[in-house]
Design a protein that fits this description.
The strands form 3 sheets. A 7-stranded mixed sheet has the order 1-2-4-3-5-13-6, with helices on both faces. Strands 9-10-8-11 form a 4-stranded antiparallel sheet, with helices on both faces. Strands 7-12 form a two-stranded parallel sheet. It starts with a helix and ends in a 21-residue tail after the last helix. The radius of gyration is 23 Å and the shape is globular. Helix 1 runs antiparallel to helix 13 and helix 2 packs antiparallel against helix 4. With about 475 residues, the protein is of the alpha/beta class. InterPro entries: Amidohydrolase, Aminobenzoyl-glu_utiliz_pB, Bact_exopeptidase_dim_dom, Peptidase_M20, Peptidase_M20/M20A_hydrolases. It comes from Paenibacillus odorifer.
């Protein structure tokens, strides 16, 4: 049986259902651990397609696992569906216009990611039924990739422990089989508590939590000089203590995001940043509490699986885009900054990338983070990037949100589903590939054992007040 044609036909037949699911999730634009409606959209399609669905997987309300088949090997398809706060944007326009000022939006294309992965799982399910091939396909509904570390919590709950290989994808501005590492990260909320007082009549009686936040940030800025060059240290003041300058602020909070190539390096950074926070509290006579807010392991690419995915992508080819789709994408590029337009020029002036990028045997490095990393420490994990937006579109931008319901985005989403499905079927048919992928992962880990940066007592949360 020609499985390329078979899965392409299945996904084309399900095109309306998959596109509707993606667009509904775009409309809901729910952020970390609040994706109840988005998760239910995907769960219902899985059930309609014959999957048994475990909701609240790992005791995480918006996580779920859809399963079809029986026995080994067990292949996982990873899906995401969370949005970003403050990214509201009207779809289908080439200018910035929030749907609702300050509201959420899909600035990373996870509406497409979740639906494309869903298409892959459905196609593999139908192939297993038709071919009689042994094995199990699972769709993992993974919440809170954006800062919440959903897969880390799912990994901690043991949801991936019996999986033989995992596949996923991400919406992007070109087509390629991914073989780069990504940074480990940990997000920590620091809350300082002092004493309020009249800032003019009795300032000596006050102990300013806001001063403590300021001193902590100053200390962290000095720390940057003494971190390895690949490390990153970001912060956002989440509570400045109020809006009255004549009050000594008794409570203030700052959220830190730490990144480094390895989890062990992030652990060292955590200790140093916590020491700085303690010093700021001592200097201001305040108290400080800290709480891990989310974390992700460094991503370990698997060349064995990425070669398979590149081969499958080559067989399927890239999407062909119409003149109207190119015109809309060009309008998006016209809205770019001068620096972003320079990226487009350096890329040959592409509008929408149709070609598959050459495969590289050299391991790259991307200075970003993903909780796919936590899965990649446990299970050999392959990933592709697929064109869904104008070349040069930056993630977490209004331009990406504006393209999230476009026909070009839908084409890329459906193509991604086909590549993932073909890759899953390939390894189901060739157990030796799975064995080689596992051997490669063992070699890359070199004796290291996965241990999440999230402490055991910390539970998933949409937001924290500490």
């Amino acid at each position: 049986m020609d499985y390329y044609q078979f899965i392409s036909d299945i996904i084309d037949q399900k095109q309306g259902k998959l596109t509707e699911a993606s667009d509904q999730i775009w409309d809901f634009c729910e952020t970390r651990y609040q994706e109840h409606r988005s998760a239910e959209v995907l769960c219902k399609v899985l059930e309609e397609e014959g999957f048994s669905v475990q909701r609240s997987a790992g005791e995480i309300e918006t996580a779920f696992v859809g399963t079809y088949g029986k026995g080994a090997p067990i292949i996982a398809i990873l899906g995401e569906f969370d949005a970003l706060s403050g990214m509201s944007q009207v779809a289908g326009v080439t200018f910035k216009e929030p749907l609702q000022e300050g509201a959420n939006g899909h600035g990373c294309g996870h509406n497409l990611l979740g639906a494309g992965s869903l298409g892959a799982a459905v196609a593999v399910r139908h192939y297993l039924e038709r071919s009689g091939l042994p094995g199990t396909i699972r769709y993992y509904g993974c919440p809170a990739e954006e800062g919440g570390g959903g897969k880390a919590y799912m990994a901690r709950a043991g949801l991936f422990k019996d999986v033989d290989a995992a596949f996923t994808w991400h919406p992007w501005d070109e087509n390629l089989a991914y073989n780069s590492r990504m940074l480990a990260t940990c997000q920590i909320q620091f809350t300082f508590r002092g004493n309020s007082s009249h800032a003019s009549a009795s300032p000596h009686l006050g102990r300013s939590a806001l001063d403590a936040v300021g001193l902590m940030n100053a200390g962290a800025n000095y720390l940057r000089e003494h971190l390895i060059s690949e490390a990153r240290l970001h912060y956002a003041i989440t509570d400045a203590g109020g809006h009255s300058p004549n009050v000594v602020q008794a409570k203030a909070s700052v959220l830190y995001k730490l990144r480094a190539p390895r989890m062990s390096q992030v652990k060292e950074m955590i200790q140093r940043v916590c020491d700085i926070a303690s010093g700021a509290a001592m200097m201001t006579g305040t108290r400080v509490e800290h709480q891990v807010d989310g974390a992700s392991a460094d991503l370990i690419p698997n060349f064995t699986l990425s070669r398979v995915m590149h081969q499958c992508f080559t067989e399927l080819g890239g999407a062909a885009f119409t003149e109207d789709e190119q015109r809309f994408a060009r309008g998006i590029q016209d809205s770019f900054s001068a620096e972003e337009k320079r990226i487009v020029r350096n890329g040959g002036g592409r509008i929408l990338s149709e070609q598959l990028q050459p495969y590289s045997e050299e391991q790259g490095y991307v200075y970003a983070s993903t909780d796919v990393g936590d899965v990649s420490w446990i299970v050999p994990t392959g990933q592709v990037y697929v064109t869904t937006c104008a070349y040069g579109t930056q993630p977490h931008s209004w331009q990406l949100v504006a393209q999230g319901k476009s026909s070009a985005a839908h084409k890329g989403m459906l193509l991604a589903g086909k590549v993932l499905a073909a890759s899953a079927i390939h390894v189901l048919q060739h157990p030796a590939v799975i064995a080689a992928a596992k051997s490669e992962l063992k070699e890359q880990l070199d004796g290291e054992v996965y241990q999440s940066l999230i402490p055991p007592e910390v539970q998933p949360a949409a937001s924290r007040a500490v």
